[in-house]
Each structure stands twice: as structure tokens, then as C-alpha cells.
Design brief:
By secondary structure, this protein is of the alpha/beta class. The protein is about 50% helix and about 10% strand. The protein has 14 helices and eight strands. Strand 2 and strand 3 form a beta hairpin. Helix 2 crosses helix 9, helix 10 packs across helix 11 and helix 12 packs antiparallel against helix 13. The protein is globular.
């Protein structure tokens, strides 16, 4: 509870400073250099703050299509129960994926469309649609994964499309949001020839996979209520064996997943910008984490430079320190750490050579250099920019090291 309160206080402080910076920038005259750029950078920081809530992904599809297996494959943990014989999921419910105590992802696991028998788990709702809408009314998803078994694309799929179209329309009425829909073909390993695992160089197998992708995409595009929502169709294999118990890890020699990373990349691409950091953090996709981190460093560097223009010696230090603290906290959060000031303390103690120098440089620049006649402010801005950029680079190297850097550290 204490950690949660500290995190909320840290969020509140950073939201306050972003709001105050917006006020400062908005008061600048229109001809002020970089005013538009500064506003864009502030937008980036505000999106980063909004993105600290977990993304919400809804998974819908026909019974036995592999929805629960797909959820586990995305998370890399056993978070959803899978039954090989009969429908498992009853009431549609939001399931939270945690990692190291952090709430990283909310997934709406739903009853199967066109179910031939009642699910094992109890559900008061009479139909899958009613069950899904009860959950949607509690929380609005950010994206919909519409799941279809690869061998059943041409098998009465129009009923599934009817349901998906209806759900997307109701969400639009409820929340006034046009949600992105990503089609997911599951169990692609069952396509002919069935004994050939994926990935493969087998031309027949690859041809059959691509033909099913094209067919499913064309079916989705034919629907007026889905056409502009559908972003892509991704073929996958989600099967893996897990350790016993809730949140059991994938057994190293029993991981048969295919194209799951590509699916998460598509998720990141088409979900609202403000939650992309959360998705990349959840999926541990380094290139997206680095992209988000560098965007935040750029924003913070430019903002610190603009704040350092203040001609009063020492006036910029509290604001710049807050921006730099947020920057380090956010990069640490991307890596899976808590969004807290303890993350910054850990970084400053063990974050590598030069961090302390960078942290102190902005104070020296702001107080000392401004006394130099004529060039004081220019030098102070330059020093502030260099200090913030250096601090950001050091935080990225510490929290999000490349594989090469990891190997160097381990050796």
C-alpha cells in the first residue's frame, strides 16, 4: 500500500509539472523559436504519463478457437485456464497480468461465440454477446483481437463476423471510440501439411497460411461496420506447455509459439499512442522500449533547455530536476521497475560512471554560468541540454541495455 501511495504521489507531482510547463509555453509569443516543438514535446510527456495505466485488450472469437492459449502466449505465463476437451471460460472477465508486482496488462477473456455447449465456468449471462457486453460496460478496451482458427475461416464465419460487428458498434455508442480490430489466425500449424511445424520453408504450408490470411482479411473488409476498424490479420501458433499453478512460466523445451512477437508489434502499432509504452514494457520488446525511451529523453532535453532560459540564477533548478527525475523514473518503468523515486535512487547509486557529474552539471550551469555577461544564458541552456541528454542516455544504458551490453556486464 505504501509503495502504491508513493507511486501515486510521484505521478501527481509529474502531472503537475507538465501542466505548469504547458502554461509557461502557452504564454510564449507565437514567434518564439521552437514554441510548436516544445508543445509537441509536452504532448509526448503527457501521453507517457497517461500510458502508465495498463493497456486493455479484448479477445473474442469462436469457441475452441484458442483464445485462452493466445492470452497465455502473449503474456508468456499461464494467466488463463485452458481445457482441451470442453469450453472453459464462463463469465467474460478482465484478467490482470502482473510482473514483479506491477500491473502490466488487462485482458478481457470471453466466452466463445457459437458455443455448442455451456462453458464449465458459471456465467449468469444467457449468451456470449450479453456476457461480453457486461464486461465492456465496466471497462472500455483499447484494442480488439478477433480470433479465428486457421482451419475454420470458411466455416460459418459470417456468424462470428455478425457478433464482432455488433460489439464494435455498441462500443462506439457507449464510449464514442473507434477501436482498432486485429484479426488473429490461431492454430496455423494445423493447416496442411499438418505435420510441418512453423516457421518453415515448406512452400505448400506457407502458401496455405497466406491464403487463409487473405481470406479472413477479405471477410472482415466486406463488413461495413468493421472495414475501417480492421488494421491487419496476423497468423499465429500459441501452443506452449507451462509450469503448474497460476502464472506458471513456459517450460523452455515446450515452447512452440510462432509469430507472437509480430502480433504484439502490431498491437503496439495500432493501439492509442499513450499506451504503447505499457505494451512494449509488458512484452519486453526491446526496440519499442528503446524507441519510447528515446522519445521521452528528446522531449525532456528540449524542455530543460527552454526552462534554463530563465535569466534568474538558480530559478530553473527545481523545474529541471523534476523533469530529469520523471525521465529516469519513466525509463526505469519501461524496463519493469516501479514508477517511483526509489528507482531514481537505485540508478544514481549504481547507474554507472558520470551520472553524478551529469546530475550536478545543471546546477553549476544554472547558477554559475548565468553570471557571465552576454553569454551566460546561452551557456546555461547548452549545459542544461547536455546534462539532461547525458542523464537520459545513461538511464537507457542502465535500464534498457542492448544484448551486447548485457553480455559485457555478465562477463
Amino acid at each position: 500500500m505504501t509503495d502504491s501511495l508513493e507511486n501515486n504521489e510521484a505521478l501527481s507531482r509529474n502531472e503537475f509539472i507538465v501542466t505548469e510547463l504547458f502554461k509557461i509555453v502557452n504564454l510564449l509569443p507565437g514567434f518564439f523559436p521552437l514554441k510548436n516543438d516544445l508543445q509537441l514535446q509536452l504532448d509526448s510527456l503527457r501521453e507517457a504519463l497517461l500510458g502508465l495505466r495498463p493497456p486493455r485488450v479484448m479477445v473474442i472469437g469462436r469457441s475452441r478457437a484458442g483464445k485462452s492459449s493466445l492470452i497465455n502466449a502473449i503474456c508468456g505465463l499461464r494467466v488463463a485456464e485452458v481445457n482441451d476437451r470442453e469450453p472453459e471460460q464462463g463469465r467474460a472477465e478482465w484478467k490482470n497480468y502482473y510482473h514483479n508486482g506491477s500491473d502490466l496488462l488487462h485482458i478481457l477473456d470471453t466466452r466463445g461465440l457459437q458455443e455448442s455447449q455451456a462453458p464449465r465456468q458459471y456465467d449468469s449471462a444467457k449468451t456470449p454477446y450479453e456476457s461480453i457486453m457486461q464486461a465492456v460496460k465496466k471497462e472500455c478496451p483499447d484494442v480488439i483481437l478477433f480470433v479465428c482458427k486457421a482451419t475454420e475461416v470458411h466455416s460459418a464465419s459470417h456468424h462470428d463476423l455478425d457478433a464482432c460487428e455488433l460489439i464494435v458498434g455498441e462500443i462506439k455508442k457507449l464510449y464514442r471510440r473507434d477501436l482498432p480490430v486485429i484479426g488473429v489466425l490461431t492454430k496455423c500449424d494445423e493447416l496442411a501439411p499438418p505435420k510441418v511445424p512453423l516457421p518453415t520453408e515448406n512452400e505448400r504450408k506457407n502458401h496455405n497460411v497466406q491464403e487463409q490470411v487473405k481470406s479472413f482479411l477479405s471477410f472482415l473488409a466486406e463488413r461495413e461496420g468493421l472495414r475501417r476498424h480492421v488494421k491487419d490479420v496476423v497468423p499465429t501458433v500459441a501452443y506452449a506447455d507451462y509450469e503448474e499453478g497460476k502464472n506458471g512460466l513456459i517450460l523452455p523445451d515446450e515452447d512452440y509459439r510462432w509469430n507472437i512477437t509480430e502480433l504484439v508489434e502490431i498491437l503496439i502499432k495500432y493501439t492509442p499512442k499513450e499506451i504503447r509504452g505499457s505494451l512494449s514494457r509488458m512484452a519486453h520488446i526491446k526496440e519499442f522500449q528503446l524507441h519510447v525511451a528515446r522519445t521521452v529523453v528528446t522531449a525532456c532535453t528540449l524542455l530543460c533547455g527552454s526552462v534554463s532560459v530563465n535569466p534568474i540564477p538558480g530559478a530553473a533548478i527545481p523545474v529541471v530536476s523534476t523533469i530529469q527525475t520523471f525521465m529516469v523514473m519513466y525509463i526505469g518503468w519501461l524496463s519493469g521497475r516501479e514508477f517511483s523515486e526509489q528507482t531514481v535512487k537505485d540508478f544514481l547509486v549504481t547507474g554507472g560512471i558520470g551520472v553524478g557529474v551529469n546530475a550536478g552539471l545543471i546546477g553549476i550551469a544554472d547558477i554559475g554560468l548565468k553570471f557571465i555577461p552576454g553569454f551566460g544564458n546561452v551557456l546555461a541552456v547548452g549545459a542544461g541540454v547536455i546534462a539532461t541528454q547525458g542523464l537520459g542516455d545513461a538511464a537507457i544504458a542502465y535500464f534498457l541495455p542492448s544484448q551486447k551490453e548485457k553480455n559485457t556486464v555478465s562477463s
